[in-house]
């Protein structure tokens, strides 16, 4: 289905084009992805890209939002669990599956790996992705704190440290997936990580 801009038909499907851009950013990272490779993958010319998305920077932000709503929705899905441990286990198990599904998309996580190497000119991109990661970590910490207050976790549990630990596990799992780890490999990592949960 085509969409319109100022009453004129746009000769491409915006969602399909955005998904193609997402895959390029996910595969190569923000800085290594050029306008030429984006337009080729999206099947459009540069003027169409600029008209539809503004510029590469704005396109990247749109791609990250799409990622969070689709391939990366495991975080929000996990937060529907009723306990902090349920949140953590669901998040880790879904991440192990998602990160290694290379038949559907590149390995790993766009939000973790999309701005690993950036110059000073792209620090805002790194900050944007860091904010996504920080928000997830803070959400985990809040759920842990709630369980401490409810008495289902020991009162001396360090909620920020525990949340940071599991955030680090998730980030490491993404790197392992990009290095070729299988879902089975990552599920074993999850088993080990859950063994550290406070009794």
From TrEMBL:
Residues 11-71 form the HTH tetR-type domain. The keyword DNA-binding applies. Coiled coil: none annotated. Residues 34-53 bind DNA. It comes from the Bacteria. Gene3D superfamilies: Homeodomain-like (1.10.10.60), Tetracycline Repressor, domain 2 (1.10.357.10). The keyword Transmembrane does not apply. Pfam families: TetR_C_13 (PF16925), TetR_N (PF00440). Keywords: DNA-binding, Transcription, Transcription regulation. This is TetR/AcrR family transcriptional regulator. It comes from Catenulispora pinistramenti. The lineage of its organism: Bacteria, Bacillati, Actinomycetota, Actinomycetes, Catenulisporales.
